[in-house]
Amino acid sequence: DSDFSAHDEL
Amino acid sequence: MNIFRFFGDISHLASIFILIHKIHTSRSCRGISFKTQVLYVAVFVTRYLDLLYSWVSLYNFVMKVFFIASSCYILYLMKVRFRPTNDPSIDTFRVEYLVGPCAVLALIFNYGYAVTEVLWSFSIFLESVAILPQLFMLQRTGEAETITTHYLAALGAYRTLYIPNWIYRYFSEGYVDPIAVTAGLVQTGLYLDFFYVYFTKVLQGQKFELPA
């Protein structure tokens, strides 16, 4: 995962 | 997690409960675009594939499972349980005009050429426009039941609250996700007309009616 992607958001 | 994102997610949850409540109490899915609901299932399934291989938190896990399950349940309500109340003849937005461009955008803009990353981008782009068949239907019929407008308002509030969340994250974590932010701004923008009528009419106790 990129540090700059909102993968931790819903 | 910050309060903007938390209340955004709560608003998203609320919108789904409002929709299910509307369908159950009126025993009808009149005024609801089936196409938009199908798009939401596609959005959730393609975005939450990471349920299978990554763990963020219990909160994250429960919400993802709920969004997938509830969106599928809504399709069941519309296509099986209350099928006679669903009128496809007014749900005429051409979904391929949304899915195609979103797929192309996802292939161009993503965070890595892996199937899961491209599908994640696709889901972000698709979510930003998934409400269009619903808004188009509203435009066509020119009016909506009050409860349906509460559903749309809660859904619009959800993405609107994600904007201060991103501003907060930019300052607190030095973090910015250009794909999510761009798509999020577009998505919120699509609600502006609706919000205008909602605030000036529905919240003043009037019926949601568009000028002829």
UniProtKB/TrEMBL annotation, chain B:
Tell me what this protein is called: ER lumen protein-retaining receptor
Q: Where are the transmembrane segments?
A: 52-76, 97-113, 179-199
The GO terms describing molecular function are:
ER retention sequence binding
Any GO CC annotation of this UniProt entry:
endoplasmic reticulum membrane
Query: In which family does this protein belong, per the annotation?
Result: Belongs to the ERD2 family.
The UniProt keywords, alphabetically, are:
Endoplasmic reticulum, ER-Golgi transport, Membrane, Protein transport, Receptor, Transmembrane, Transmembrane helix, Transport
* Localization (cell): Endoplasmic reticulum membrane
Tell me how this protein sits in the membrane.
Multi-pass membrane protein
Coarse class of the protein's main subcellular location:
endoplasmic reticulum
Supply the InterPro entries for this chain. Answer: ER_ret_rcpt
Q: Which GO terms describe its biological process?
A: protein retention in ER lumen; protein transport; vesicle-mediated transport
